[in-house]
Design a protein that fits this description.
GO molecular function: identical protein binding; N2-acetyl-L-ornithine:2-oxoglutarate 5-aminotransferase activity; pyridoxal phosphate binding
Helix content: 25-40%
CATH class of the largest domain: Alpha Beta
CATH architecture of the largest domain: 3-Layer(aba) Sandwich
Pathway: Amino-acid biosynthesis; L-arginine biosynthesis; N(2)-acetyl-L-ornithine from L-glutamate: step 4/4
Number of helices: 13
Structural class: alpha/beta
Number of domains: 2
GO cellular component, one term: cytoplasm
Cofactor: pyridoxal 5'-phosphate
Largest sheet: 7 strands, mixed
Shape: globular
Order of helices and strands: HEEEHHHEHEHEHEEEHEHEEHHEEHEEEH
InterPro entries: Ac/SucOrn_transaminase_bac, AcOrn/SuccOrn_fam, Aminotrans_3, Aminotrans_3_PPA_site, Class-III_PLP-dep_AT, PyrdxlP-dep_Trfase, PyrdxlP-dep_Trfase_major, PyrdxlP-dep_Trfase_small
Strand content: 15-25%
Strand order of the largest sheet: 4-12-11-10-7-5-6
Length: 404
Amino acid sequence: MSYTPTRSDFDQYMVPNYAPQQVIPVRGEGSRLWDQQDREYIDFAGGIAVNALGHCHPVLVEALKAQADKLWHLSNVYTNEPALALAKSLVERTFADKAYFCSSGGEANEAALKLARRWAHDTHGAHKDKIISFRQSFHGRTFFTVSVGGQPKYSQGFGPVPGGILHAEFNDLESVRALVGDDTCAIMVEPMQGEGGIVPATPEFLQGLRDLCDANDALLIFDEVQTGVGRTGKLYAYMNYGVTPDILTTAKSLGGGFPVGAMLTTDKVAPSLAIGTHGSTYGGNALASAVALAAVETIDTPEVLGGVEERHALFRELLEAINRKHGLFKEVRGMGLLIGAQMADAWEGRAKDILPLAIEEGVMALIAGPNVLRMAPSLVIPEADIREGMARLERAIDRLVAQG
């Protein structure tokens, strides 16, 4: 590269649909990053729950390098060994019988929704096409998934949305019961709403959805794009609840930073995606599959999964200590290492104001909507990095409170 890019280059050359922070990270190791000026940051953002093993984890680096010398891409005119190995691993570790690969969570959810509609059409007829999801849910940015998602701001201004989509209230089973019927083909839900504010589902709610789907011959879809692959302390969040979906979507942590997504389903449902009904040019890409297999095999161990709950407890303890000092948060919630701190009434809408101050103090965090500070760090972040990062976050919050 003959020049050093700057933050102003984003404004000049990139479509303005993002507003990135002013720093440009250029190097990462574990849970720490360094910018162009070699300033260090502790990463509590994790690439929005993607970097499940931190940056440049040696197992993932080795998997990528080894596969890079063999085979990168074939398309789905052929299959490849890494994709088959990944499919076998995911099926053997979950409820699923079959896997479908793509490049992102949005694509995985698009495939899930199309499969549900196609299965209902094949099994029951064209009348059975209604999809129920939930207000404040988020399922991706394709036009179908953004319409199923329960945040109208993401679909406004793009023209008429697809029909046959209904929205109920999350954690309110009666609101679902009022909508479900013989024409329902699927209910789609996040076991814990991510972009909607880090809100876990109650066990009774998810079990109730399973029962309603069974009673109405509809499919239950779990969107585990953000909660999957160890994020909640189990390989997938459904395992915490003992409620099994018919279709599950996964991405983000699945590739540990390499773009990859998957839809998992059963032999009952999978045949409806027959040859030619759906596809993804990059789905099952050999490089992505090799890295994802290494990530899954590394994460799905007692050492990593057991450590997630220990780290959750430490994050919660330190956040609550900050809160006792300032009363900034109404509630700290979440599961595993997807943690949200909802702003108190006096600070409503101010979560975003923490982020630039945190960057200045050397820690990266996220928000989940305007009112929730979100953290989704590496599942193997060292305790020392948690404590140091939280000390930096506390300094940022001290400054916010001083500003008033």
